[in-house]
Amino acid sequence: MNILFLCKRRPQNRDLIERPYGRFYNLPKCLSAMGHQVTLFLGSYKDEPPEDIKMEGMSVFSRRMFPNIFGFYLEVKELSQILKPDVIVCFSDTWFGIIGASIAKTLGASLVIDAYDNYEAYLPAAKPLHWLWRWSLNRADALTAAGPQLLEKLTESNDKALKAVIPMTADDLFKPLKMVSCRERLNLPLNNKLVGYAGSANKSRGGDVFKEAIKILFAERNDVDLVVSGRLKISMELPLNRLHDLGYIQDDLMPIVLNSCDLLITVNKDSAFGQFSYPIKVYEALACKRQILATDTLPARWILKNNEHFLVPFNNARVMAFKIGELLDNPIDVEMLNYDWKDAAYKLERVLKRVKFEC
Cα-flanking dihedrals φ and ψ of residue 190, to 5°? Predict the structure, then answer.
């Protein structure tokens, strides 16, 4: 098949050309490796020159989107008329679903719209954009999503489309490694229990509950330290020797960070965002066979297969502190993640074949 993917260049703030990763790069890459003709057209929110390159068998184009979104639309349309794709797959943002829906039918191409988050939660006041997003969903031949809760929300706008869950998973570099070696490499303490925090520290995501839980835990025991990395800054009154801020970590070192920890925490609220959020850090922790404690949203419960050991109420810091201590003292064996991007690509391929030959 001839497949055109439309996607933001920097979904989740990571450049797909300079730092290819995740759903947005690996699904097209795997489909290309399976013999399909794949083009990836990226929309950049930054003021940067256009790029036309080859990446792992794919043709990749990058163009600036703003301030001239109509000009970007015309460039996508012009390339699509040359490529004549069988299927257009729209990733990562409302804009790409809208643009894909605007051109697919005129080209005789099938339209697949994929979502990994509830995009309407990003800009709740942008009603016209939401209306256009729902209009595009209604025109899709197939809808795919990172989990069943999000897929159900998408199908509220189109219950006639084919639908499929294409789960998130971890990139190949995430795998179990020896904890002592990882800690030595990062100069982390070898004897204390290490709790890693993955996610936002914002109150809107539940970061305030996590901070309170850590304060309770640290007041009760001296054998636990906290590890954070990236641009995340947690302002808490903790002894400096018990808070290990690794700062910005290169992508290839992230598995080292995860494998250094006895337990990883990710929090979210049962909100318009959290109800449909499938944290990639949960998948990465599972791929490393690290214990994970996630706040009990429906998506987290689905990913963790209803395992109560790894779920905690999102609004109770004392219970969270207790469960952190319990998992540190009585570790639970983690079931290895046995699903990769190739598996996800085969699922997506089945959807694409159905829309091409049945719709």
Answer: -90, -25
Q: Are strands 224-228 and 291-295 parallel, antiparallel or unpaired?
A: unpaired
Q: Helix, strand, coil proportions of the chain in percent (round to 5)?
A: 45, 20, 35
Geometric angle at alpha carbon 151, from 150 and 154, rounded to 5°: 90
Structure tokens at 263: 């337990």
Question: Could you tell me which of 19, 91, 100 has the C-alpha nearest to residue 55?
Answer: 19
Integer Cα distance of 99 and 105 in angstroms: 11
Whole-angstrom distance, CA of residue 86 vs CA of residue 5: 11
For 275, counting Cβ atoms within 10 Å of its Cβ (0-12 exposed, 13-18 middle, 19+ buried), the class is middle
Q: What angle do CA 58, 68, 5 make, to 5 degrees?
A: 20
Q: Rounded CA gap, 315 and 287, in Å?
A: 27
Q: Dihedral, CA atoms, 185, 171, 57, 109, nearest 10 degrees?
A: -160
Tokens 């929090």, residue? 267
Average pLDDT over residues 278-287: 93
Of 248, 334, 333, the closest CA to residue 285 belongs to 334
Confidence at 203, pLDDT banded by 50, 70, 90: low
Question: Domains in the chain, ordered, with CATH?
Answer: 2-169+340-358 (3.40.50.2000), 179-329 (3.40.50.2000)
CA-atom Rg of the chain in angstroms: 21
**CA-CA distance, 313 to 160, in Å (whole number)?**
36
206 residue type, one letter: G
pTM recorded for the entire structure: 0.91
Write out the H or E segment, with its range, that includes residue 4: strand 2-8
Which of 333, 275, 337 is CA-nearest to residue 301? 275
Q: Supply the mean pLDDT for the chain.
A: 91
